[in-house]
Each structure stands twice: as structure tokens, then as C-alpha cells.
Design brief:
heterodimer, A: 63% helix, globular, B: alpha/beta, Rossmann fold, six-stranded mixed β-sheet, 9 strands
């Protein structure tokens, strides 16, 4: 007679606490980070970012092009950078609301780490995609343009909420395309400037630094539903 | 005293949601009653350290929540169930409660046992490995209560905790409240008078951002006797009588 299965708990039931291995602070930290990343849909975001990198690779490899001036030449790379920035921005949206905000000190650090790592990985994916051909401005322009765009997204999430953070990069894309078409050279429209331009680099750096600070310290704006001011 | 609130006011733009509230309470279950828009949720959010007061003084668990270090200590010892609890649908009930246990910096060795115990206390043991998306409204509310009590808080704040619970679950929940109130300060915001009568040792009634009554439920009941105030139960009549008297006094003062 076999005893297999006798000790199995009922499907879906809580495991006995004594059966769970005791873990140290390092495991707890990793577990917390893992649960945080899953709740922010970061695995899905990584898939999307990889897809955007592959799309850039395909666009450069097969010379997808839009005939015209600077605005047209940069349209596909800028659109893909905007997409990657929007994906990063949307991961700042948290589903737990005020219960999470009232639960300890780790939340700001989790936001900062997740955003910084995702931004770095997204730049890596875009840079890998850019190896397939000649990207206008090269890797330096890609770094500046993408980081600035991510910063616009983070500022937008801080102002509008994580779920609507994508609106900032989309609006910036339209502004940039308009500026490129009209040959504007403002450093705040960094894709319109040469890759080694200091003013544009400073502006893009300021924007991503401000975005990271705001998202870390204040987080994305809370929705009216979760703030519940009615009673 | 675990909660000391002195002349606290909170404004949202031109709207004054809470006006000069003074409140002190220690261990036990404290009921916060009042009609919709009375300021209960805003007061609870300030006690939960989610929003700061516009003016006035707040001390929680002997600490000032306006400073970073003390606020961190308060949050480790706090349990909070907001009116609108969000959840990630892909989490299981156990993962949901574990996330909050880790966020509240519980000692790693205690987390598995605390998670299992909190889930059992809200009678969701058989659903621990079930995804949150499959739970009913009442079960979600119980999962929310589990995350609030997982760290055995010294200060537990529950905003409309019985919303969505069936009568049997509400009776069980009131027993849980009484049990928790033996060690901790439990503040329950509700507009259901019967919850307060059954579980709370002390009650405050809010209207238009102010506390218009504070005392034992029996004292609130006594306020309704012989007044002809509306209500099916004695406590409801006391509630109505106090509200009518407070509103008459406000109108007379204008």
C-alpha cells in the first residue's frame, strides 16, 4: 500500500507554515522584488521591449524608410523609442493603491530600481537592434534621445498617473516630428540636434533625472478612485 | 494612547473634508460612524499616514508621522484596509498577503507562518492558492483584511470592512474585530450602525467633517430614547437623534 498523496493539501489550500523553509533577508528582498515586478507587469514589458528592439533591427536591416527630410528619416527610430519609453512608463502603475503606500519604506526604492533597470535594458535592446544598419546619429544619439523620452514618460506618469504615462512620450514624439519638419534647433527637442551637442544632452539628462526623482519620491499620481476623497 | 489627534483639519482645495477634529484612543475597537461625505475616510487616510493634515497635530503609537523615521516605524506597525482596495489579478491570495508582509518589513522567518495565519483568520484557507481574479467581492474584502492583519498591527485601520460580506461572514468578522481589539487599537470606519453596536467599545459620530458625538455605543443609544428619531434599532435612533441635533445647532449658529 502506498502512502503517496496522503499528505497533499486540498487544491488551492494554504500550505502548512511549518513546511515552508525559513529564509534570510536576502531571499526576502528578492521575493519582495519579484512580487513587485510581477504586479507591475514587468515580465510582459520585457517581452514588449525585446519586440521593439527586434522591430528596430528589422527596420534597419531591410531599410524600411520613409522618403523625405530629417523628420521622415527619424520617424521609425523615434516611434520605436517612444514605444519603449511608453512601456517603461506604464510599469510605474501599481494596482494596490493606498494599502501599499501605507506599508513601509521599500516602495520608493523598488520604483527606482525597476525603472532604472528597465530603462537600461530597453536601451540595450534598442542598441542591439541598431547594429543591423545605420541609425541616424548612432548609439550616442540613441542613448540621449531614448533616455530623454523615458524621462518625459516618467514626468507624465507623475502628473497623470502610471496608466496614462504613455501620453507624455506620444505628445513629445509629435512635438519632435513637428520641430524636425520646421528645422527647429531648440536643445529641448534633442533629436533635432547633432549627437555630440552638449545643450541637448544636458536637457535630456535633466529630464530623465527629474523623472526618476519624482517617480521615486512621489510615485505616479494616484487615481481618483483609489484616493477616495468622498467620505 | 496609540492615537492622539489634536485640532486636525484637512482641506482639498476649497473643500474642508475634516474640520478641527480632536480624538484620543488606546487599545480596543473604536467605531467611526457617519453619513457619506462626513469625513471618515479622510480622517482614516490621515491616520494611515497616506495624506498629511493641513493643520493640527497627529501622534500615532507615540510617534510623529510627519517625520521620516517615525513614519517608517508607524507603518511597520500599521494595518490598513482602504475603502477601495486594489489587487493584482494574477496573484494568489497567499502571494497577495505575502507581498504586504514583506513590504511591512516582517522578519523573514516569520513571514510564511504569519501569511498562513492571517489567511486562516479570515477563513480563506481553502483559497490560499487561488488567483485573486477568481474571488468574489466578499472574498476579496476578506483577502484585504488578511493583508491588513498579517503583521499583527498595533494600529489597525479598516474602512468599510464589512462591505460585500454576507451576514454570516459579518458575524465572524465582528468576533475577529473584538479579538484584535484586545491587543491593538482598531479603528473601524463604517456607516453600518449594527457593526458598531456589536463590536465597538467606543464610537465617534462624524458629520460635515466634525465629530458630533464621542462615547460608548450605549450612550449613543440613550441619546435616541424618547426623541422620536428615525431608525429601526435603538442605536440607529440614537445616531439619527445626534445627527438631527448637530445639524439644528449648525443651522441655528448661522
Amino acid at each position: 500500500m502506498t502512502t503517496a498523496g496522503l499528505d497533499r493539501p486540498a487544491p488551492g489550500s494554504v500550505p502548512p507554515a511549518t513546511a515552508v523553509t525559513r529564509h534570510g533577508p536576502a531571499y526576502s528582498g528578492l521575493r519582495l522584488a519579484g512580487l513587485y515586478l510581477v504586479s507591475r507587469r514587468v515580465p510582459m514589458a520585457l517581452g514588449l521591449i525585446a519586440g521593439i528592439g527586434a522591430l528596430l533591427w528589422a527596420a534597419l536591416h531591410w531599410h524600411w524608410n520613409i522618403a523625405g527630410g530629417a523628420a521622415a528619416r527619424q520617424f521609425i527610430p523615434l516611434t520605436l523609442e517612444t514605444g519603449a519609453a511608453a512601456v517603461i512608463t506604464v510599469t510605474t502603475f501599481g494596482p494596490f493603491g493606498e494599502a501599499e503606500r501605507a506599508a513601509g519604506r521599500w516602495l520608493p526604492w523598488l520604483r527606482l530600481a525597476a525603472t532604472a533597470v528597465l530603462t537600461a535594458l530597453a536601451f540595450g535592446a534598442l542598441a542591439a537592434g541598431a547594429t543591423a544598419g545605420v541609425l541616424p546619429g548612432g548609439s550616442l544619439a540613441l542613448l540621449r534621445n531614448f533616455c530623454g523620452m523615458a524621462g518625459v514618460g516618467l514626468l507624465s506618469a507623475a502628473a497623470l498617473g502610471g496608466a496614462f504615462g504613455w501620453a507624455g512620450p506620444m505628445a513629445y514624439l509629435l512635438v519632435t516630428e513637428g520641430a524636425l519638419a520646421h528645422r527647429s534647433t531648440s536643445p529641448w527637442v534633442w533629436p533635432a540636434r547633432p549627437p555630440h551637442d552638449h545643450g541637448a544632452a544636458i536637457c535630456a539628462t535633466l529630464v530623465i533625472a527629474a523623472g526618476l526623482v519624482l517617480i521615486t519620491v512621489r510615485g505616479p499620481r494616484a487615481s481618483i478612485r483609489e484616493s477616495g476623497q468622498a467620505s | 494612547m496609540n492615537v492622539e489627534i489634536s485640532e486636525v483639519t484637512r482641506r482639498f482645495g476649497r473643500t474642508e473634508a475634516v474640520t478641527g477634529v480632536t480624538l484620543t484612543t488606546g487599545a480596543g475597537v473604536f467605531g467611526l460612524l457617519g453619513p457619506n461625505g462626513a469625513g471618515k475616510t479622510t480622517l482614516l487616510r490621515m491616520i494611515a499616514t497616506v495624506i498629511p493634515p493641513s493643520s493640527g497635530r497627529l501622534r500615532l503609537l507615540g510617534r510623529d508621522p510627519g517625520e521620516y523615521g517615525p513614519r517608517r516605524e508607524i507603518r511597520r506597525r500599521l494595518g490598513y484596509l482602504p475603502q477601495n482596495l486594489g489587487y493584482y489579478p494574477g496573484f494568489t491570495v497567499a502571494e497577495f498577503v505575502e507581498y504586504f508582509a514583506l513590504l511591512k518589513e516582517m522578519p523573514p522567518g516569520r513571514v510564511p507562518h504569519a501569511v498562513a495565519a492571517a489567511i486562516e483568520r479570515v477563513d480563506l484557507g481553502s483559497k490560499a492558492r487561488v488567483k485573486m481574479r477568481t474571488l468574489s467581492g466578499g472574498m476579496l474584502r476578506r483577502a484585504g483584511i488578511a493583508q491588513a492583519i498579517v503583521n499583527e498591527p498595533e494600529l489597525l485601520l479598516l474602512d468599510e470592512p464589512t462591505a460585500g460580506l454576507d451576514p454570516e461572514q459579518r458575524v465572524t468578522f465582528r468576533a475577529l474585530l473584538r479579538d484584535l481589539g484586545q491587543r491593538a487599537t482598531v479603528i473601524v470606519s463604517t456607516h453600518l450602525v449594527e457593526d458598531v453596536g456589536a463590536a465597538c467599545g467606543e464610537v465617534a459620530l462624524m458629520d460635515a467633517g466634525k465629530i458630533v458625538f464621542q462615547g460608548a455605543p450605549a450612550e449613543l443609544t440613550a441619546r435616541g430614547e424618547g426623541t422620536g428619531a428615525a431608525g429601526d434599532a435603538p442605536l440607529e435612533r440614537g445616531y439619527s437623534a445626534v445627527l438631527v441635533a448637530a445639524r439644528s445647532a449648525t443651522a441655528a449658529a448661522r
